[in-house]
Design goal:
The chain is mainly alpha-helical and 81 residues long. It has two domains: 39 residues; 38 residues. The protein is built from two helices and no strands. The longest helix has 36 residues. The radius of gyration is 28 Å and the shape is elongated. The termini are far apart. 0% of the residues are buried.
Length: 81
């Protein structure tokens, strides 16, 4: 086997492995999107998804309001001095 044929064989092998790798990445991405649509729910989870989402959204809203309130208090305090 000459050096040029060895390089050609290697480049053909690498092209085949690259194309199969690209296909694998596309499959992985498709699977990931499907899992994201389903949410972070395991088979052992028995909680109601809608209730959990409402509780999390309410908690997030509370934290945002508190942060805004703290900022308002800070700005009010620095303008007094």
């Amino acid at each position: 086997m000459s050096k040029s044929s060895a390089v050609t064989a290697t480049s053909n092998d690498s092209q085949e492995s690259k194309s199969s790798f690209i296909l694998d990445v596309e499959k992985i991405r498709a699977d990931a999107w499907q899992h994201m649509d389903e949410g972070a729910v395991t088979t052992g989870c028995c909680a109601d998804r809608e209730v959990v989402l409402k509780l999390l959204n309410d908690s997030l809203a509370t934290e945002i309001v508190c942060t805004l309130r703290y900022k308002r208090h800070y700005l009010s305090a620095i303008t007094i001095t």
